[in-house]
Amino acid sequence: MTGPVHYELYIRKTAPASWSLQMATEDRAHAIQTAEDLLSDNRAAAVRVTKETLDPDTMAFDSVTVLTRGAPEVQRKRVIPDDEAGPRCSAPQDLYAPIARDLIGRVLEDWLNRQGVTAFELLHRPDLAEKLEASGVELQHAVQKVAVPESQAVGQPVHDLVRHYQKLADKTIERLLIAGRRNLFPDLENHSLADIAHRFSGQADRAFVMGGVISGALKGVRGGRARLDRLMDLAERAPMEGAPRAMVMVPIEQVMCELFAARTSLADVLGPALDQGASLAAVVRMVAPREVAALIKQDARLALQVPVVDGPAARLGERVAAGEFPLLSAALARMVVRELMSPRRLRPNDAAGEIDILRTLAMTLTATAGRLLTLEEVQTAFNERSKAIVTADFVAAYVKTCTTVLCEAEALTRLCENVTGLANKRASARWLSACVGSLRFEGEMRATSNQTAAQKLGILANLTRAVRTCGLMERDETEIITAIGGVGGTVEAEARIVAMLARAPAPLPQKLSVLLRMAAGETAPPGPAADRAKAEAIKLFRAPDNRAALAAAPETIAPLKGLMKAAGLAA
């Protein structure tokens, strides 16, 4: 359903001027006629009429242009501030910054994947620099990929930027080749990593040298798992403390950040058998082992959803738990958030399993909030993911395996419980409301022969309690519970359970207990059935003989006081 609609008239008094609101009205014809009159009387150079529709779920306006007439808008040339003008990188050292390495990794992604290396290694290994230079076309295309968008951003001619970055690439390659010829990067086969770190500590080019040492140690090692294992070996051989240790650990962390940024490497490290959801859960366990272990201790079922990390991933997890590699931990946590916000399914062939893994990720990521991510980042990610699981395609796949409409209602209740965000809660509530309010739901509950009427009422009461735990808006919750209660009232009326209880030759306290449990919503859903049980209980309480019997044996009414309170009766 759509909300209120109105029309807005905007004008530009001159061609270069910006749009300004002239009027707002609910009459479409009046808005269009006023626009035509302003244009014909030369009181405006251009006019535009838009239709504004209020979305009752998000309370935001959806705008659609109805009419545009007059002079076209003047395209203004963007003014580039002085501090943004010119090339972003002007010296070889600028290419070693994290942002520059990330860009290099993107424009040379295919080449780096074929070589099985990262951008960090390319900038620290003479053999890779020589191989890239020899390729020619790869380097030229990469330069063009950088120069074209930067030209639009900084307002500098493309050809000038291409020449600039080509010269910069040549200087960087020459620097690496000279370092290789001078044996600037010691070989770890003949030198101790700790000795190298102590020897170069305090020197101006220590970061460049240590980056070359670490990158050289990875030469010939292919595959994400093997490379991570080698990096963990290097971390174990690092100095114990101080600046020399930092010299070693920083480049190791930088290589790992780029290593895990590749999907193929992540699958190799964690195992190719894991789907997207399980991989994300394994990443969270790797970067937050203490938090995940505490959650599993509280709920052992969580261990079924979070894969066990082993091998080099477990070694990395131990170091993260000890407080090492904080940048890598934060980068992996943000990667999980990005994947949650993407349209990619967590478990493409298992919609119910996707709900399970989504709930697990919500628990584990929330436990890390404040250390790796903010609570707002986690909430935003799950709000975005929730949009994908309330769509028609997902819901159809989710309830596809249900053989009864009651099963669909229970599944949709679980869906309502696990989505976040006001709009997503309302969308899921609409699915559930349509299910329990359908004739099929009522017909199935009335026609089912393998259950007694009392069992059906108990099932409906359980469904009602589940709905109340979903955190739905009060209006949606009331609508759903009313529909369930209506079905329960029909089932009870056909079986005449309340009337049969009232006439049953059972002790008075027992009859009252059964009726009060129905009235309190324990064995029947709120609605007509519960109301009839409550009325019958009141009638029994008010009967003179029953009042005298209860007064003579006050111990029989004591167990009923809690039920009376729940049913809304004065004790």
Provide a concise account of the structure shown.
This protein is mainly alpha-helical and 571 residues long. The protein has helices spanning 28-40, 98-107, 109-115, 119-122, 126-135, 137-154, 158-181, 193-200, 206-217, 224-236, 242-261, 263-270, 276-287, 289-298, 311-321, 326-341, 351-368, 375-388, 392-398, 405-418, 422-436, 439-447, 453-468, 474-495, 497-503, 508-519, 528-542, 544-552, 561-566, and strands spanning 5-12, 20-25, 46-54, 61-70. A hairpin with a 7-residue loop joins strand 1 and strand 2 (20-25).
In order across it, which strands form the biggest sheet? 2-1-3-4
- Percentage of residues assigned to helices: 55-70%
Q: What integer is the average pLDDT?
A: 87
Protein structure class: mainly alpha
Query: Which term fits the overall shape?
Result: flat
List the helices and strands and how they pair.
Blueprint: E1 5-12, E2 20-25, H1 28-40, E3 46-54, E4 61-70, H2 98-107, H3 109-115, H4 119-122, H5 126-135, H6 137-154, H7 158-181, H8 193-200, H9 206-217, H10 224-236, H11 242-261, H12 263-270, H13 276-287, H14 289-298, H15 311-321, H16 326-341, H17 351-368, H18 375-388, H19 392-398, H20 405-418, H21 422-436, H22 439-447, H23 453-468, H24 474-495, H25 497-503, H26 508-519, H27 528-542, H28 544-552, H29 561-566
Antiparallel strand pairs: 1-2, 1-3, 3-4
